[in-house]
Each structure stands twice: as structure tokens, then as C-alpha cells.
Amino acid sequence: AEHLTQTLQVIDLTAASLDPGGEDIDPQELSRRLAVALRPAAYLRSISLIDASGRVVASSSKDNIGRSVPLSGFFPEAPPESTQVRIGEPWLGRDLHDGLASSPE
Questions:
Q1: 19-31 pLDDT, tens per residue?
Q2: How far apart, in whole angstroms, are the C-alpha atoms of residue 95 and residue 88?
Q3: N or C, which end of the chain has less CB nearby within 10 Å?
Q4: For position 19, what pLDDT does the model report?
């Protein structure tokens, strides 16, 4: 539980540090910042930001950009425009670009 809490805190702090404060940031620049922010947290595969439709718009892994992530099953439930960190269902694979949602089987 402590490790999970620390991981979520790292992600939340990283996202907060990337907040442009009302200015638009180019997705490539945002992806670069995500990659830099990920360096001290090597236990995370990547950090990706998705839009309200579930499409990855910036990521520390270029292979994730443009991928769609199904938004159903994330906790806590929140409207699509929410900016809070949410956790999805278990995922098979090493990252978004080469993985898929797992099943009970």
C-alpha cells in the first residue's frame, strides 16, 4: 500500500509540475517534459496524458501518442473533462502501445 501511495504521489506531483498555468504547451514539448519527469521514477513504464475522448495526446513514450484508451472502468468515476489522477483496470503488456485490457481469464 505504501509503494502504491508513493507511486500515485509521484504521478500527481509530476502532473502538477507540468501545468502550464493557462498557457498552451505544444504536445511535443509536453511529451519531452513527461520523459524528463519520468527519469527519477524508472519503475514507471511511461506517463501519458489523454484528452476527454481517451486519446493519448502527450506521452513520455512516443509509441503511445495517438492511442485510444477506453475510459470505462477507471476509478474514481469522474467526468471526461476531469483532471484528477484515476486508475484503470489491470492491463496486459508493458505499455499502452503494446498492451490490452486484461480479462478475468
A1: 656 567 788 988 9
A2: 13
A3: C
A4: 65
Q: What is the pLDDT of residues 37-59, one digit of tens each?
A: 888 777 788 888 888 888 999 99
Joined grid coordinates for residue 37: 519527469
CA dist 73 and 40 (Å) reads: 29
Which amino acid type is present at position 52? Answer: A
Whole-prediction pTM: 0.74
Mean of the pLDDT values across residues 88-95?
A: 83
> Residue by residue, what is the 3-state secondary structure of the chain?
CHHHHHHHHHHHHHHHHCCCCCCCCCHHHHHHHHHHHHCCCCCCCCCEEECCCCEEEEECCHHHCCCECCCCCCECCCCCCCCCCCECCCEECCCHHHCEECCCC
